[in-house]
Amino acid sequence: VMYLLNFRNFLQNVILGAGPDGPYARAMRGEITVSQLVSELEEDCKKFAASLGASLPETFSVAQVFEDIMTQGKLNTALLQAAVTLRNNGFRTCVLTNNWIDDGPQRHITALAFSLLRRHFDLVIESCRVGLKKPDPRIYEYALNVLKAKPQEVIFLDDIGANLKPAQEMGIATIFVKDTNAALKELQDLCGIQLLGHEETLPIACDPVNVTHGYVPIKLGVQLHFVEMGDGPVVCLCHGFPESWFSWRYQIPALAEAGFRVLALDMKGYGDSTAPLGQSGSPSSSPPSGPLRGDKQQKDLVVFLDKLGISQAVFIGHDWGGAVVWNMSLFYPERVRAVAGLNVPYRPANPNVDVMEIIKAHPVLDHQLYFQEPGVAELELEKDLSRTFRIMIRSMRKEVGMFSPLSLSAGGLLAGMPEDPPPSQILAGADLQYFIQQFKKSGFRRPLNWYRNMRANWQWSLSAKDRKVRADPSAAVTRLLSLGLDLRAGAGARLAFSSPSPGLRADEERCQEQPAVPSFPGAERTVAW
């Protein structure tokens, strides 16, 4: 009886006693499912107890043990973060696990866990999918072949010593994981990458090739392209200028892992989203029929939601995308579950001053006047796309010859900046090349047309000047510092949120200190993620 009280030891003896052809081993090789495994183990446990001259208690349940294993399991976040750090430093990462085909009542947990692992690792090898299980040496040979790696190039971590022995014999460096910090210290020493006490690393980003792309036809000549990930309440991400859906590459997986269905759009006229040139290509006095006028943007988003069968969504926008999402909450509040604007807090339109006069009165916004004449800014920005993005999309860290506001005084937006700027710390390598590829498709004409409807948009938005943002929660996240703003002009001005937006929440700085300039999309010309 005392023997049976230690149920885990009892079950372990049943499993090991069955040998390589027992139900557990067959389940690990994918020959039977977990429900079949539970059923066979129940019978084996009864037989084993009888051989000891004992009987199982009425409450005995192998199924309950497996359910407890699933519900009580926890992710080792420290090891996961280390894997992310290694991957960011050029290492290929792989999960090599003994696992069963899960058709049990808790199979959704297995689905969530492996979905997470596949986003964070280059490769996930499950024993049940390849017909081999640890510590069979053949599964290590299989992994080496798939990774195209030699044993001497691999470090293998496991919390079962028996699984490490065959790998060691093959020449693989091994780490026995008993204590996470000790294992990470050993891994750090072997790979030469700081894993303990390091700064927070970048999260996993989307790979444009390995993410779902979708297209929604809005009307003749207009389609919206989007990237989708996750399952749950819908979050629509709307970018600004000069960006694309790819600007959200770090936020998309994080939101998906948090339980949301993420839709990151290419805004109209960007990347694979199309927009006719129409009259939006004319100067700021263009008639309100321009296809990039604000009301058309909101109507297009409503059509986008309708065609995807979505009644409500959380809208998050940056820069021009911020203006779009605030207006969604004003003109289509029934479609907005919650709203947040990054770098563009909501301010109602001022009926007493023409918006173009406001822009002319603030030199920090002179680029918006520069953008009004079709063809001029396009010529400069499209001349060398690599240089354009290396200048316009940078981090806020100080860099020699780079940390200065963009100015038109030298004869152009990028004039006076290095001809061959240093690589951007936030947009380099393959990420930069993807931006270049997208803007080779769209050019800058349509993205710049967003600035060429300023007066029409202002006149349209006056109809909502007395409305309030009712979405709750709503949030504005801003930054004090911007390469595109001259901070000497009236620093310390406060933003008043309570009147136009009763549900609005500011960021942790409470947005108390901001340059005393109008809050326009595009006033900040540097993206920082």
From TrEMBL:
<dbReference type="InterPro" id="IPR000073">
    <property type="entry name" value="AB_hydrolase_1"/>
</dbReference>
<protein>
    <recommendedName>
        <fullName>AB hydrolase-1 domain-containing protein</fullName>
    </recommendedName>
</protein>
<dbReference type="Pfam" id="PF00561">
    <property type="entry name" value="Abhydrolase_1"/>
</dbReference>
<feature type="region of interest" description="Disordered">
    <location>
        <begin position="499"/>
        <end position="529"/>
    </location>
</feature>
<feature type="region of interest" description="Disordered">
    <location>
        <begin position="275"/>
        <end position="294"/>
    </location>
</feature>
<dbReference type="InterPro" id="IPR011945">
    <property type="entry name" value="HAD-SF_ppase_IA/epoxid_hydro_N"/>
</dbReference>
<dbReference type="InterPro" id="IPR023214">
    <property type="entry name" value="HAD_sf"/>
</dbReference>
<dbReference type="InterPro" id="IPR006439">
    <property type="entry name" value="HAD-SF_hydro_IA"/>
</dbReference>
<feature type="domain" description="AB hydrolase-1">
    <location>
        <begin position="233"/>
        <end position="469"/>
    </location>
</feature>
<dbReference type="InterPro" id="IPR023198">
    <property type="entry name" value="PGP-like_dom2"/>
</dbReference>
<dbReference type="InterPro" id="IPR052898">
    <property type="entry name" value="ACAD10-like"/>
</dbReference>
<dbReference type="InterPro" id="IPR029058">
    <property type="entry name" value="AB_hydrolase_fold"/>
</dbReference>
<dbReference type="Pfam" id="PF00702">
    <property type="entry name" value="Hydrolase"/>
</dbReference>
<keyword id="KW-0007">Acetylation</keyword>
